[in-house]
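Good morning C.,

I know you're traveling, so I'll keep this short. The sequence:
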Amino acid sequence: RVCSECGEKETSAIDRLGGTSIIACSTEDKSCGENLVWVLYFDGTLKIIGKGKMTDFADAESTPWYEYSDKITAVIAEDGVESIGAYAFTGCRNLKKVTWTDSVKSIGQYAFGRCSSLAELTLPEKLESIGYYAFYYDSALTHISFGKTVSHIGSNAFVGCSALTAIEFAD
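The tokens, ready to paste straight into the viewer:
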């Protein structure tokens, strides 16, 4: 098989990306940020790798992984990723877990909207800004933990999060 994004034979892409089977990747273009690449593994994990800011997408359909959005169950933004772009994961209804490092300083508008399987969220410790409607209608979201540095939460960032029962702020 051939990777639908980078065009390499799957075995070549797997070897280069650490031995785990992949569905798709963009290892040689700038489809998600100037110095970022993405890889979607067969287990549903989408990794964002590199250093810099993610692209702010015009809508969910313009993300490079849109055709795989129902397969995404976890997102990992590796160290060096500075932002999660607008609309990046909107509508990823099977997304259950987001892992990020303190290099993430901002989450764009509508970034995780309508992720109806996302139940708990621990935001990056050094996060500064959350865009408007960033987590709108995440109907399974019950718990959010904020770090000390959030200075801006956009309007309606958590609108429609009807299961939300616990919000924690760092001391």
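Safe travels,
E.
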